[in-house]
Structure formats: C-alpha cells, structure tokens
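Researcher: I need the complex structure. Ligand is nicotinamide-adenine-dinucleotide. Inputs:
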Amino acid sequence: MNAQNPASAGGPVVEGPRDPEHDPRASYALEPEYVAALTERLVATGGTTAEVRSPLNDAPLAHVPQSTPADVVEAFARARRAQIGWARTPVEARQRALLRLHDLVLDRQDEIIDLIQWETGKARKHAFDEPLHVALTARYYGRTAARHLATTRRPGVVPVLTRVEVNRVPKGVVGIISPWNYPFDLALIDGIAAIAAGNAVVAKPDAQTVLSALLGAELLEQAGIPRELWQVVAGDGAEIGGAIVERADYVCFTGSTATGRLIARGCADRLIGCSLELGGKNPLLVLRDADLEKAAEGAVRASFSNSGQLCVSMERIFVADQVYDRFVERFVARTEALTLGSTLEWGNDMGPLISRQQLDTVTAHVDDAVAKGARVLTGGHARPDLGPYFFEPTILEGVSPEMTCFGRETFGPVVSLYRFHDEADAIARANGGEYGLNASIYSQDGARARFLARHVKAGTVNINEAFAATFASLDAPMGGMRESGTGRRQGAEGVLRYTETQSVATQRLIRFGPQLGMSDEAYAKVMNANLRLMKKLGRA
Ligand code: NAD
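Model: Output:
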C-alpha cells in the first residue's frame, strides 16, 4: 500500500494537516473564534471544558464546554417550549426548511468536510459521504414527510356510519445520542426525520466530535428551523446521555451494542420507545458466478471505508471455492494499492483510526488472531510513522472461533476470509453470531442472489454492492436485526417511529347498544346476525 507520510515524505503531492501559521484554510478549524461560535450553541453552564485533539496529528483542536445534568434539564425545557409552536407549523413549511438545509449542506460542504476530517482523521472521500448523505436525507424527508404523516381513513365498524381517521401525532422531544464515526451524518439524519414529524430534539454527540454536530445545528437554524428546537449538550456518555434517557419522549441511539442495551433498559423503565442502531460483524459473500473485479473492488470499499470504522462495513468475506484464489489475488492487490495519509486533501484512501483506544482494540484483535494461527495476507501492523493512530488495511486467513475477531466487532480495517463449498453452508456461517446489520452478495445471477438474501439475517442486503445501495436508498428502511438493533431509520418507518398514532372515530345516526326499546337479548341476536353477514361479505 502507498503511504503518504506528512512527517517524512515531504514531496509536493504529500501534505500533512495544514499548518495554521502558513495555511489560512487551516486556521479556521483551529481558530478559537470559530470554535467559540460553534460551542456557544451548547447548553453548558458547568464551567468545565474538555480538550479535543485531532487524530490527524494528535494536536489540540478545541476546548469544548461540558454540560451538567441541570443543563440537560434546561435543554429539555427549551426544546419543549419550542416544540409546541413547531408541531403547529404546517408540515409543508417544515419540508421547505429541510429542502433549504439540503442546499446549505452542499454549499458549505468544504467547511463541513474539513471539520469532520479534523475531528475524526478520516480520508476526505469518506468525509464527503457525510454531507452527501445528510443532503439526501434532507431532500427525501423534504419531499415525502407530508405523505408519510398524512391522516389516513380506515374502515369503521359500521360501514358508512362509523368514520375512522388515524392521525400521526409527534412524540414531543426526541433524544438523539450519536457516535464519533460519522459525526455530522449521524448527528443529523435521525433528527431530521424527528423534526419533520413535528418533534424537538435534544442531541448528545460523542465527546470527540461535538463540533461537527454543532455545525449541523447551525445549518439547521440557517435553514429556518427555530434555534430552540434543536438543543445540543456535551459531556460524559453515562451522565449526560443518561440524563437524556431520563427525560426524552423517545430516544434514538446509534453506537455500540453494550451501550444500546443500557439505553433500552432505561427506556423500558420509563415506558418510552427507542430505536437502536448498533454494531455488526457484517458478511460479504462472493458466489462462484460473481464478477471478481467488481467483487474485489466492492470488498475493498466494504472493508476499509473510514478505516473500517463504519457500522455497515464488512469484517467477514465468504468466497466460493471455485473462485477463491482468483478473488483473493485481486482483493489483496487492490488493498495493497490503497493510499494511506493524514492530509485534508482528496486522494487518500484511508486515514488513521480515531483514537488510541481504537488502535489498541484493532492491534489486540490482529495480535490475538496471529498468535492463535491466523495468516496475514497483507497489512497487520500499526503505522506510527504515518500518524498517531494508523493501522494498515489488513486481510486475515485461517481465522477460527477461538480468536476474538471471529465473532466480535473489530471496528477497524481488518477483514477475515473464509472459503465455502456450498451456498447453504455459506449462509449458515454468515448468519453465525449475534449480529444482523448488513450483508452483501456478489453474483451475476440477480434473481438467485435476491432469493438467497431472504435467508440472510441482516436488516439490509446489498447485491453486487457493499453497503451504499441500501444506505443511500432513502425510501427503504435501514437498521439491524438481532443484536444490531431495533427500529429503522429511513423511509416511512424512519419518520413514523417519532409519532404516536391517534385513532379518531366519528359515529353517525346509530349508537352502540339496543335501539328503540329493543331488549338486550334481541340486540345480541341482531349483532350475531350482523357478524355472520359481514364475514360473508368479506369484511376484514
Ligand atoms: P458507544 O456506545 O460507546 O457511544 C455512542 C454514544 O453513546 C456516544 O455519544 C457516547 O457518549 C454515548 N454513551 C456512552 N455511554 C452511554 C450511556 N451509558 N448512556 C447514554 N449514552 C452513552 O459507541 P462508539 O464506540 O462511540 O461507536 C461505535 C459503535 O457504534 C460500533 O459498535 C458501531 O458498529 C456502532 N455504530 C452503529 C451504527 C448503526 O447505524 N447501526 C452507526 C455507527 C456506529
């Protein structure tokens, strides 16, 4: 693989994180005034700050004011006040604000991408995916919210005389707790659906990536969303995230399965709903009739996008015996051609991991596998020469159940290869473990791949694509089965989860109960005859 090392290479095409003294574009990301303009949106009165360092160079990036539990109470009070007026705002007006957000995100994408890169270290092309997906989501709900949320007519118990309507009523204030891996995207997309449905939001981004989430809040306000409607708090996950779970009317959480369980328990205690978008150990299947060039290209993107720190990325690849060697040759060659670098420029394929903790986890998974007999086909090492948290894109063979990375999510650039002889066996192995987020099947027989997909335990299955086909098809629901979560984002499901149904029935002319001096017994007979008649007429 090609390495672009800002510290040692020094050539004209190689550039490290911009030097604030010499590059004016760098200065804004680090400029105290820029940071202050973003952080003044936080409800954070405790007087303490947390230092955030950039994984690009481990240099300090910002000091972020920290919220207290009392600040969370205040954020909810503000959000509740704002939500009353917002719920009365016609859904068409809410939609127009989302369509303005779409344009603003595209207009300011360079700034957004720079900030994401400073906070996460990811390669520019993967940072670009974030404004892209936010714009898609804003456009989707900007065009469809009214349709999804429209009051619907349902058949009443007495034909013609019982008129029934089902309204969609906003839940109130939605708590959005989001992780660091897609900090702009995941801070916004679920909340966009929540406000489209007439709710307010109290958001708690991960401590490493508060600034990207705050930039999103600024853009929402510019798009015409009332400032008070979207509150952001910052702080420790358990303390501040926990305070959100104690007050929200609904919680949307994206993060690890372990934290998801805690959130689910908290929500169960309060009898409120939640959607949980959690981890995965996603499988990719290469069938014997696959186009191997396409499969190898997809496998690289599937395994190493955002350095593997992507919930829908692939950590297990099952390859048909007949094509195994030819696939592996192509996959390894493409992986070795990846360019690693910690620069803000386009052109790098992979940046560093986000933190020391991620690097330690990835290193431990690979070391454990190698110690127990796995073979490294390429990669396998940390690369401190490139930046503080670099790890090479790594392909393993011979991974077995006693190795940690066999079933546990690594959440890094490490993928294991497995051979299979028949497809039923491959599906059974792909379905092993407890997760069920995303899967991918490469085959030139689309109908057969779609048939097999029905047997895969995953909330999304991409055929001849890694993850983008489902992730960007906004009308289709996306989310996990089993320990990968509950609830769905995207599509009608993604907005209806933030509503309560309210059934309104209007009764006309006749009432329920005996009419005109009829006895209870005669009434029962009439009702029985009526039931039989309705069944004969085919009524539901
Ligand atoms: P995490 O669970 O540690 O943290 C996620 C968020 O929860 C952060 O904002 C954190 O501060 C907060 N938090 C932590 N403890 C909390 C608590 N007790 N109560 C309330 N909030 C708390 O997850 P992470 O390590 O930051 O993210 C990586 C994980 O997220 C991976 O497992 C990945 O697969 C998953 N993920 C899933 C999706 C998806 O859509 N399914 C998307 C991205 C990431």
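Model: Summary of the prediction. The chain has three domains: 37-150+171-278, 280-479, 505-536.
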